[in-house]
Structures are given as structure tokens and as C-alpha cells.
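F.,

This is the one I mentioned.
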């Protein structure tokens, strides 16, 4: 039985199994997982959360769908190209 760990995105979910393995699972309704700005932010911060979680012994990153991850949302990529603040995570 797995326990869900809450994240602030729908780009991926985290399931903690009974053996202490946290599964970071990229997901997408379209079958090709992509990561938007919220997903990047959640991914950047989740490592600290998992590091101090008392039941996490290991982390496995995987994906559901046709590919591991199709990349970033193209609108987000364009925003990052257009804005230095967004490239630095400030926008």
C-alpha cells in the first residue's frame, strides 16, 4: 500500500511505498509527460522534503505514459527565453 505525499503540481505525484521508497512519477493525461513552471518549482523543492521525511529511505524517479518526459511546456520555455527573471526562477 502506498501513501501519497502532497506536491504543488499535477505534473508528477509522489507515492511512498511500505519499504520506504518514494516514487516520483511524472504523469500526463495526454501520454507524454511535460513539466510546466509550477512543476519545475515543485520538483526543485521536493528533494528537501523527501530528505527529512522520516520514512523515506530511497527515491525512484519514473514516468507513466509514452516517454519518460517530453520536456518543458513550450509556453514556459518561451517565457524563460524572453525573461531573465523567469530564467532565474523569480518571475
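My design for it:
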Amino acid at each position: 500500500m502506498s501513501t501519497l505525499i502532497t506536491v504543488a503540481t499535477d505534473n508528477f505525484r509522489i507515492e511512498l511505498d511500505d519499504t520506504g521508497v518514494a516514487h516520483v512519477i511524472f504523469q500526463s493525461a495526454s501520454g507524454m509527460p511535460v513539466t510546466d513552471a509550477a512543476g519545475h518549482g515543485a520538483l526543485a523543492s521536493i528533494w528537501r522534503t523527501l530528505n527529512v521525511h522520516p520514512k523515506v529511505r530511497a527515491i525512484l524517479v519514473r514516468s507513466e505514459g509514452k516517454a519518460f518526459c517530453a520536456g518543458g511546456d513550450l509556453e514556459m520555455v518561451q517565457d524563460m527565453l524572453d525573461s531573465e527573471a523567469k530564467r532565474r526562477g523569480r518571475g
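The mean pLDDT is 83.

Talk soon.
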